[in-house]
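Entry:
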Amino acid sequence: MLHPVHSSFQLPATYVALCEFLRDNRDFHDDQVPKWSDVWSDLLLCDGGPLNPLEDADAPVEEDPIELSYRSQPMEIVPFGWEGGDALHYGWAVLAPELDLDDHACVSFAPIDGHAVWLGDDTMQGLENLLVGRVANWTKWGEGGELSPAERSSWAVLCRALELRPLVGSPEITAGARSSRRISPAVPPGWMYEPTADGLGVLAEASAFASDDTIPGDPVTDEDWIEHAREHITAGYPATALVILKDIGGETPAVQAMREAYQALGRTMHVERADAWLRFNP
């Protein structure tokens, strides 16, 4: 199953299984959650966005991804759900689409924070931790004597169907399915990973990083840094350029240069997302 906006992105099998399960069980209900469309938002904290597991995920979407209207949005986060339709969202950290991985680390991200935090090492763990976060919400704010989400029949049915084993009460996951961890991606042989301020970092072949990042003239302005990044792109080190540009933040000239770095790395999906970002933030 392909992403409705990014046709080169294959949705992970666990998410596809979730879609199939929810669509095949539309008539399921219990006293607390009367229909599966409410399970998606109630148990998994998700709502809105171009991906809705109760709808045909292969149906193309004409509009630009709304998350890219936020200036601080990293291009590498491909959301699969939002909490209550607000700015906090959950998604896959697609660091290097050219690897064509079967699954990806999951993160939560709120533009006000400016950096992503770990949600799971893959989609299954991401869904498990969304469930853990749902119980953390219930514990923190209470819900008028209602059953804990973990005690509802919908919880048990969903977990059994997808073989989810949420560690309820995990100290790593707080309300909103938030954590204090950053992702730690696997680094293939011959590749490098460099952390960045957005919590995602840059993963690329080692040859795409400059071995010596001596900075001539000590750049002091964003314009200086962007020019320095473009020098790296010209020299054949787009990964180093991307590290520099990510640390500048969501400024239009920086994203224009990031688009060039993604292009040099052959990351078509990220180029598409940079183009959408630039349409929102000309």
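Helices lie at 13-24, 36-42, 123-141, 153-162, 222-234, 238-246, 252-265, 268-280.
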